Amino acid sequence: MSPLRSPLTFIGLVAAMLVAACSAGSGASSSAAPPSAGAPSASASAAATVSESPSTAEPVKLVVGLGYIPSVQFAPFYLAQQEGWYAEAGLEVEFQNKIDPDLITLVGQGSIDVGIGDGTSVIPAVSQGIPIRYLATVYGKSPNVVFAKASSGISTAADLAGKKIGTPGRYGSGWIMLQALLGSAGLTTEDVEIVEYPDFTQRAAVEQGAVDAATGFANNEPVQLELDGEQAVVLRVDDIVALPGPGLVAGTSTLESRRDAIDAFITVTLRAMEAIIADPATGLEAAIVAVPELASARVAQLAVLNATIESWTGPVQASDGLGAIDRAGWTASIEYLTSLGLVPNPVTVDDLIDAGSSRGNY
After folding, report:
1. CA atoms within 13 A on the CB side of 166
2. So what's the pLDDT on residue 55?
3. Which residue, 145, 150, 148, 147, is CA-closest to 231?
4. Model pTM?
5. Cα(306)–Cα(112) distance, rounded to whole angstroms?
6. Cβ distance 315 to 325 under 8 Å?
7. pLDDT at 8
8. Engineered SS bond to 215: which of 30, 40, 151, 167, CB 3.0-4.6 Å?
């Protein structure tokens, strides 16, 4: 087994995994969990207030970085744009699709004002001095999972002992998740056979029986597996280590100069997420308007979207509203990533989460 890559290399590679997560819905097929019915958040009323008072001043332009392939998973951003909610909040929003290693760097430089970043990439990035802060949670449940065919007999982490597990590589949020999941059963990666699929074809390997299970994303591979007619079993890490999922991040210099605009953007985006939870079809249609080729696979795209919606709400978001940040989970994640040697310089939750964000006080 090759060792983990160095922390500096890890930042770029962990980000590459997020790219795969964010781009997965673009051509995908998948089966979906039902939409989450998370508790209504205060963001809805706040967003309504913003939208009822459109700015008469020149709109503030924000460049927003999304994953490198336009996807149904970005439906809240598309919906808010198409409904004019960003404009009503005094914003002119431009979306740019970037691979995540570039996105983290550009957000830190202020070239991109707001972007989506995975918590497990934010922690080592800030540890190495990249000036970014996590502002609001998008994925309340970590989207990284281990999946298998139900016929495999795998139903718990302990069942992975001695099995072949496919993964794109020994890096990134998926690799971190796998180690945590195995560790919960007293196992390590030495107790399984790791098969690498750098071309991200591990789902096909599961279908074909080349491996027993694989790492992937809750809103991608297991969804596709079920659409292909195979019942899937999914093992999640959330109850073991609350690894922070992707959320909205911004550079510290951007927060200093455009805090009001950034706060308005987050509020409106959360409003759009709530609208899609209430009616997923609105999110699907918005995604199709933004990415017309998605119309050729409506059933699959709705399945991906439903699975994405299910991942937006974890326990903290269910009680405190969409966007809420689980500080205890972040503390546990810092400790865990430190134990893996991925945090070269000590950081605290306050170093990672924007102190001005009311969503971080949970």
Report:
1. 23
2. 47
3. 150
4. 0.82
5. 29
6. no
7. 35
8. 167
